[in-house]
Amino acid sequence: MHFTEEYLQQAPSSNYQIENTTIDDLELIYWFFEEAIHYINKNKYVGWTTYDKNFIQWEIENQLQYKIIQDDTIICIFSVCYADEQIWREREKGDAIYLHRIVVNPAFKGQKQVEKVINWAQKNAQEKQLGYIRMDTWAANTNIIDYYKKFGFNHMGDYTTSNSSELPIQHHNLQVALLELELKK
């Protein structure tokens, strides 16, 4: 997919909204993932090597994927769930929102998109009376673990996922770092 330079270089704005993605967004969502994988490979980082298109479609259909829109441009996507027994096992008690697959539009990297996602998650968790925001990331990527720690997340340990069909393809047999942010009551 090719996007115009004008699209990729739009000026940042503090006005944004967060809403569910739709099937109409799929081509752009796939492009975001492909660009992220290209960036990871180019820089020899630990990260995605593939992504599960069927799982993305399922998330959209179940209104579990969101987009940050700024000036009519999708600048970031992310997914949520409210139970994650496959990864958090005995810690799963229905008391957390789980963030997954945060992918930033390459033209908007470095403009605090993750901060917007975490702020949204905090408000969502408070509305649902949840005590935690949790996420997982590659255990071998200490840079991203340290980045999330700057937002107040604690590294709760590492876990190697199963090969379960309930997980997206990119999460099969993956060693992940479990990160948790306890919310103030």
TrEMBL record:
Residues 16-185 form the N-acetyltransferase domain. This is GNAT family N-acetyltransferase. It holds the Pfam family Acetyltransf_1. The lineage of its organism: Bacteria, Pseudomonadati, Bacteroidota, Cytophagia, Cytophagales. It comes from Aquirufa beregesia. InterPro entries: Acyl_CoA_acyltransferase (IPR016181), GNAT_dom (IPR000182). PROSITE patterns: GNAT.
